[in-house]
Amino acid sequence: MKQFEVVTVGGALKDIMFYTDQAHVVKNPKDVACQKLLAFEYGAKIPVQEVFVNYGGGAMNVAVGLKNFGIDVAPMVCVGRDSVGKEIYSHLKSLGISTYLMRVDAEKKTGFSVVVTSAKDKEHTIFAYKGANDHLEIFGLKDFRTQWFYVSSSNRKDWAFEFEKITRQTKRNVRIVWNPGERQLREHEKMVRFLPEIEVLILNKDEAIELVEHHAPRATRANLESPRFLLKTIKDMGPQKVVITQGARGVVAIDEREYYYYESAMSVHDKIVDTVGAGDAFSSGLVAGLVRWGNFNKALKLGMRNSAMVLYRIGAQNGLIKVKL
C-alpha cells in the first residue's frame, strides 16, 4: 500500500500570465467583501508588456512547495488527455513528485488560466478555465495511507459529496487542511457542516467576511473589519484552527485553545515581481511546518517566509524555499 505524508487535492493547470501598465485598481467601498477591482478601458485594445507561461493550480502548487521541504507528497488531480496534461505529468515527474494519484479524463481538456497582472503594483486577477479539474473525483482511499490532506477549492456541483469522502478519513486520525473556494463560500450551509472535521481552515479576509456575513447577520461593519471577531466567529463554527490571510498585512490565526496569532508580511513591497501563488506558497509552508514540527506558531512563520520568497519571482512555483526540514 502506498504511503504519503500529505495528499493535496484540487487543481493542476497551465498559467498564461500577462503584464500590463494599463490596469487600474478601483476602490469599491460599497461591498465589504470585494473592496478593490482591477479595471480596464471598456472596448480598448490593451497592450501587454510581457507574457510568461508557468504551471499552477492549488493542489499542484502546494505539492511542489511541500516537496521542496522534503515532504513525501502526492497531488490528487485530474488532467485531460492532451499535450498540456502530458506537460503537467512530465513536470511533476521532473520534480520527483508522485503521479500515483493523477487521473486522466479523455473527454475533458486540461485546465488553464489567464493571469492579468498590473505592472504598477503587481496585483492580479485570474480568469480560470477549470476543464478536467472540475471532474476530479476522490478515489483510491483504500489504496494509500496519508497523515494529512490539503484540500483546495472545487467547482464541482457535487463537491460536498466528494469532500465527505475525505472527511470520513478523520476517523483514522487523518488531519485536513482546507482552503475552500468560491463555490464552497456560496454554498456556505454545506460548507459549515464540514468545519468540525477540519484541523486548519484557511481563508483570505474577503472570504472570511463573506462566511461571517452569512452566519452572523447582525454583525456590524466594524465587526467585519475586526480580525479577532472574524477568527472567533469562524472558530465557533467548529474547525480546530483558523487562518486568515491579509495580503500585505500578513496573517492572523486562532488555535484550538483560542490563542491568537499575528504574523506580519516581510517588507518586500518595493521588490515584488509577482503575487501569483503567494497564497499557495503560504499554505505549503504552513502544512510542512505542521507535519514536521507540530508547532502552529512556527508553521505560520514558515508559511509567511515561503510566501514572501515567491513574490520575488514570476510564477506560482518559482522562488519557493528549498530546504529539507
TrEMBL record:
Q: Report the source organism.
A: Candidatus Falkowbacteria bacterium RIFOXYC2_FULL_48_21
| Pfam families given in the database record | PfkB
Q: Which domain of life is it from?
A: Bacteria
Which terms are listed as keywords in the entry? Kinase, Transferase
Show the GO MF annotations: kinase activity
Which PANTHER family does UniProt cross-reference here? RIBOKINASE, SUGAR KINASE
- Extract one GO BP annotation from the record: phosphate-containing compound metabolic process
The residues covered by the Carbohydrate kinase PfkB domain are 42-320
Task: Give the protein's recorded name.
Answer: Carbohydrate kinase PfkB domain-containing protein
Instruction: Give the transmembrane ranges.
Output: none
**Family, similarity comment:** Belongs to the carbohydrate kinase PfkB family.
